[in-house]
Amino acid sequence: MGAGWSQDEAPQSSQEPRNTISQSQDIHYKATETTPELNLPLPHAYEDIVKDADSPVDKSSTEKLYRQLHGGVFLNQKRKKYWVDEKSKSNCFMLFARNLSINWSDDKRYWHWPYLKETNDVFVDIAELLKVCWLEVNGKFETRKLSPGVTYEVIFVIMLKEPAYGWEAPVNFTLVLPDGNKKEQRQSLKEKPRGQWIEIPVGQFDTSSNKDAEIEFSLYEYQSGKWKRGLVIKGVTIRPKS
Question: How far apart are CA 146 and CA 82, in angstroms?
């Protein structure tokens, strides 16, 4: 189907050796410190974020740090990806399917977990729907890790894989903001293209200085009672609105 995932080709996530950042490697910088290389402020909250990095992050200079963060860093055993947008210098995140709460996802009768080749040497788990009538996917994210004063958008990244059926009823997409405001929309997946990744924007919001705030997002359809098949979930992207 052209998505580049394979059970046989990719190594098992649990068997891959993981590197952690040691204290000796961790050179601390203040959030507003600059260096002559780029004369840029360091990325917002990056030290706290890269504590969960799957491999070491080079902080020896701002130039090397930005080069690595522009390419992206995998977090929490490849459940997330963090990168800094080159144009806006704002933090961006991808929450892969393993970082979402998916009803019945542990039952092999209903969901399959193949691998997707994300980079030359990194494979991530994606969730492939085999059959359910109650479809529900939820996630949440701490907004303190996002760059302040930026308008962000939340986007589900999905695919329809043949045979895909049961999508006559529109699917609900929701975003709940820290102030409790809820944004909702319904999308018909029946006519969406097959065999390619598509982005479904859920909503947008402005970041604030509230350090304890969270956003919540969901995808669901169960009111029709129809059995559904063929949805593949890569994850949720949180990035500055272009």
Answer: 10
